[in-house]
Amino acid sequence: MAAVKVFLCIMALCSSTRAVGKQSFYILFADQVQSNTWPEKVCQNNGKGPQGSECVDARKYSDGIFIVSPQNFTAELVQRVKKDVPGSRLVIYFDFGDMPLAHSEECPFCQGHIMGDKYGRNCSTTYTCGPSPFLNGLQSVFPSKDAVHDITNGTPGVMVESYPGLAKYIWNNKSTPILAKYLSDYIKENQFDGIYLDGYIEPDRINFEQCTTAKEGCTSFLKSGHIYDVNGDGVEDSSEVVYATYFGWAPAFVTMMRRNLGSSAVLLANSAGAISHPSLSGITIEMESCVGTSGQQRCIEALQSQYQSTMAMNNNNNSNAVSIFWLTHSEALPPSAQCALVAQWQQQYPFVQAGTDFFDGSHVVC
């Protein structure tokens, strides 16, 4: 009922709206910190490309969280950010379903940006591409054969590109412990505060069904008439096996990361809804998911259930609990309404932060 009242108040543009509290930023690149305008001006894509040239003062994210691209982001840069933005915490970005094998000879389409190649977000418009210590290390430990391969025409098959420029992978019994060790070691060695898992999402949003329709009408990577190997053994894996492998090992990876990084680390999942993993510090949700009464209720249910899961794991100590609402897509909810709604939620849930998404081109800055 409280969420309903908040929504109606905002849509009526009531005058009692509070300012937002702590804020988070997505996504910080090494180039931005090395710019001569840091920290006074952090600009979209460092002022390059078609996404605009708006800038913000990095210091408004004091006591907030920076999601950071690990590409060339050194321990020295981590400490510089923490010095210039007091109280800030830095967590590395990692895609939960698409692997950055850029410049790997075994991946013919992985030749570009660490976060994939999409219009407005590629090597010609966005930051420094090419090999880096993070990518070199990742590719040295992750077996390329463990990426998903289409083996319709025989083995070893062809790597599957489910997002432009990135190789599809499914968590499995071999790659999960390898990645957990590599990522946690990298985080500790470079003095980051944790990890942001983009795409560790609400289970009902996962689709590993074998498609029966034309390619254009299918959201699963398991296309009609094709067979796939998802764990590198050269044997066809059915839809049922893919589901079992993913839902068995994806949560195990998060638990391994918590064990490796300790109780004070920040582990966030960009979940798009409820996931309630006790090893997470919290979740992140884009505000377009919270439009209307039912949308707000859905977001609050996800927020509260994750918070209780985090608290249960930490003996009711909430010092590590944090969740973020990304302020995006103003066509779905006006910027003033988004800022007001998050400010109201921060009053009820002090562990919530208002998130600026400066990479996807749909951000709102409060």
Description:
The chain has 366 residues and is α/β, with parallel strands linked by helices. It has helices at residues 2-11, 30-34, 75-84, 133-141, 175-189, 239-261, 292-313, 335-348; strands at 23-28, 42-43, 55-56, 65-68, 89-95, 98-99, 149-150, 158-159, 167-168, 194-198, 228-229, 266-270, 282-286, 323-327, 352-357. It has an 8-stranded parallel beta barrel, surrounded by 4 helices. The two termini are 25 Å apart. Mean pLDDT is 88; it is low at 1-16.
**Tally of extended strands?**
15
Query: Runs with pLDDT <50, length 5+?
Result: 1-16
Radius of gyration: 20 Å
Profile the largest sheet: 8 strands, parallel, barrel
SSE string, helix = H, strand = E?
A: HEHEEEHEEHEEEHEEHEEHEHE
Q: Percentage of helical residues?
A: 25-40%
- Order of strands in the sheet with most strands: 1-4-5-10-12-13-14-15
Strand content: 15-25%
Shape: globular
Overall pLDDT? 88
Element layout with pairings:
Blueprint: H1 2-11, E1 23-28, H2 30-34, E2 42-43, E3 55-56, E4 65-68, H3 75-84, E5 89-95, E6 98-99, H4 133-141, E7 149-150, E8 158-159, E9 167-168, H5 175-189, E10 194-198, E11 228-229, H6 239-261, E12 266-270, E13 282-286, H7 292-313, E14 323-327, H8 335-348, E15 352-357
Helix pairs in contact: 1-8, 4-5, 5-6
